[in-house]
């Protein structure tokens, strides 16, 4: 028995044919053998095929898509739904009173409070969402457009576009701190196992419309390591993660440009050699996700050196277009450049563009909400409205769906921590997002919060309902995007918000 065990151990130490050829591949003879190996059906070298044709073997939608691309606009920090797209006159009528003094049901006593609230074990966070003294609205509002949709006065440009927008006023989530920024992109609470972001699922599920550009591009973020989850791909593999681009045509990809002393032909030969060596390694390690991503990255990086600078070059745009996005004003230029770049990228076939028009956390108005939102709305109002108008005039509203969202809303009650007197705390129980473009109803409001803007009424929509809707518009069934060995929870799938679809 011992002899048999030793023989087994010796056999285990012998290299497989695949590994032997891969090790031999460090020489030029090995390169030739590697090329032969790719055509050798008698070996397991077929495992190499997905590494070399990742985009080509994907791309079949589950059903006819309504949209080709998504522009996902995310405002970090949590804008107040009450001072933006879900105004509540009752806040002014009962300002200064506690919830239990109004004629409405005390929202803190609602069963929805426990059903949709998941805190972490920290007392300073557990006090959130229980400030009972009603804080009045900090801005006026009025109805706009033929649809008569209410928008506050901080959004004069976007208010002119309401007949092209569809508001979902009954969104909810469970994380009451800024990990909710990851949650709205991944669907998971911070206490759970991380999941791939919605952009990564799009990247994984669909083929490329432009082999010279990534399928999933990120503009303006994420700006912190702890929000990397919002563009990450986890078990889908690193090749499906978002690729951040800088809005600098001279260097949109740091460390991704050719040095001045190297010719185009020299760099091409260098990349071809690297690709061959990587392919040989892939024979030995066919399931190595990092290696797969590296092979794809070298191939894409070479192509992107020309395609990306052209895609983010604003000098080719007319003066009228630049003004439409607010590029001529300091207050709107930063957001305008990102949104104009997003339009140029989807025009060139990028599937999913995730835009952070504002820096990390700036919408987090615990104090001085009026000052904060007055400034921030002015920064993004014209650029976002400009994007909608530009998509319309270019005929892209039938191809592109725009999503405008944040991680949660703000409390109807006045925040009292740290002597607070003019701000609102985090509020996951109910908030508003809007969508526009391909496959989406126009001039429409779906869902509602209660009279005080506290709870999303009815079943409401958890954040993965938004994911399911986006994937559906692209022709993908969220429930069919499964990975062997990875069981997704029911809440991960969400349900398509069919009520907002055309």
Q: How would you portray this structure in words?
A:
By secondary structure, the chain is α/β, with parallel strands linked by helices. The protein has a single domain (69-247, 312-500), classed as Alkaline Phosphatase, subunit A, CATH 3.40.720. The chain is 36% helix and 11% strand. It is built from 18 helices and 13 strands. The chain has helices spanning 2-13, 17-24, 28-38, 49-52, 54-57, 89-93, 111-115, 123-126, 156-159, 180-186, 198-205, 264-284, 289-311, 319-324, 330-347, 369-393, 463-473, 490-493, and strands at 69-75, 141-144, 149-152, 165-172, 216-219, 243-245, 352-355, 400-406, 409-410, 426-427, 431-437, 444-446, 461-462. The strands form three sheets. Strands 1, 4, 5, 6, 7, 8, 11, 12 and 13 form a nine-stranded mixed beta sheet that branches. The chain has a two-stranded antiparallel sheet with strand order 2-3. It has a two-stranded antiparallel ribbon with strand order 9-10. Helix 2 crosses helix 3 (28-38). Mean pLDDT is 85; it is low at 1-57.
